[in-house]
Amino acid sequence: xxxxxxxxxxxxxxxxxxxxxxxxxxxxxxxxxxxxxxxxxxxxxxxxxxxxxxxxxxxxxxxxxxxxxxxxxxxxxxxxxxxxxxxxxxxxxxxxxxxxxxxxxxxxxxxxxxxxxxxxxxxxxxxxxxxxxxxxxxxxxxxxxxxxxxxxxxxxxxxxxxxxxxxxxxxxxxxxxxxxxxxxxxxxxxxxxxxxxxxxxxxxxxxxxxxxxxxxxxxxxxxxxxxxxxxxxxxxxxxxxxxxxxxxxxxxxxxxxxxxxxxxxxxxxxxxxxxxxxxxxxxxxxxxxxxxxxxxxxxxxxxxxxxxx
Length: 309
Fold this sequence. Notes:
Helix 5 packs parallel to helix 7 (157-170). Strand 3 and strand 4 form a beta hairpin. The protein has two domains: 28-245, Rhomboid-like (Rhomboid-like fold, Up-down Bundle); 251-309, no CATH class. By secondary structure, the protein is mainly α. It has a two-stranded antiparallel ribbon with strand order 1-2. Mean pLDDT is 83; it is low at 245-264. It has twelve helices and four strands, in the order H-H-E-H-H-H-H-E-H-E-E-H-H-H-H-H. 67% of the residues lie in helices and 4% in strands.
């Protein structure tokens, strides 16, 4: 009996962590969800590689072929889904670490001025733009002819850079503090990132740097077009709305005032308030901060101070 109690007690921390992860994904921001998806793909892929290795099977590394996007058109036609999967797929730890840190830092700034929906749209469309740019240049430039049949791109860099360039174009004079450097305006960070990718093309990983530039181009065009009333992420927004169904509670269910229920109600209200905030952020992106009413400015101020419950 004591052993059973001890086993149950030992399982509780694991169950608690699993529940926290589940709740943070379900009720977290879209930025959190994107990072979780990237981490999940990375962990599952590398666990499969371990099983292949321990089993003495030669297919471990070839699994990447089904997730990375190939530049060779005939290969792409047999795996069209890779134009989406590649932007969530990383093989190496340092690769995903730097991409997720880059995405998190600038994604948080992005969400201060633009909506959750737009973050997802820029991420996905930026990734698609990066893939298109990479495939196009690899097929039309002779310098890539020899490596074309075996080249493939992977990683969230193009998507992350689309977010970086988008917020840097929207708020070019906003400054962030960098370690050992001090305050630096976003426009200079964006320019540095683009120049670094351009000059790195002949040095190493040309396909990756070309994809980055494609993502950066979309981030810039997204903001410029948005100021003219053109929504470049409309296809993604339509898909998000199509698959966004809110579950209605059943009328015959009995309400129990346990902590888990209280947490659920709190998170539900938080999601509803986030939807209202998204409308305010959309208004800022379209007409500027000064277009907000006094009430809207108060809501935005309270949200930034984490006082909305």
